[in-house]
Amino acid sequence: MSTIFAKILLAFIFILSISWNSDAQFEDYCIADEQATEDVLQNAMNWACKNGADCSAIQDYQSCFFPNTTKDHASFAFNSYYQNMKHNGASCYFTAAAILTGLNPSHDSCKFEYLP
């Protein structure tokens, strides 16, 4: 009985693995943690923008300026830094102000970069 179950389980896993959409299989984005304070987010965002993030899109009236909130701007900056620097050992931490998500946070004309 247990070998039949194991075979069925293996077949199911195999079918799942070949039908899985590989385009999004390992995508991860670094965004602001909802629990982080405004001050923590602002300081971490400032650091990210000075140390490898491309923050031009969150400048006044650029593609990711709206919504004009610290949390949204920090999310864009954190992700930009993380995507640009993860292959050099960077993490998505920012003094506990950020978290990883598998959901693409892009919205409207604001496109969050993903680098494999």
Automatic annotation (TrEMBL):
The protein's name is: X8 domain-containing protein
Matching entries from InterPro entries are given as:
X8, X8_dom_prot
Q: Which residues form a coiled coil?
A: none
Question: What is the superkingdom listed in this entry's lineage?
Answer: Eukaryota
**Signal peptide bounds:** 1-24
State the UniProt keywords alphabetically.
Signal
Q: Does the keyword Signal apply?
A: yes
Question: Key word Signal present in the record?
Answer: yes
Looking up PANTHER family in the UniProt record yields: BETA-1,3 GLUCANASE (PTHR31044), CARBOHYDRATE-BINDING X8 DOMAIN SUPERFAMILY PROTEIN (PTHR31044:SF55)
Where in this chain does the record put each X8 domain?
A: 28-112
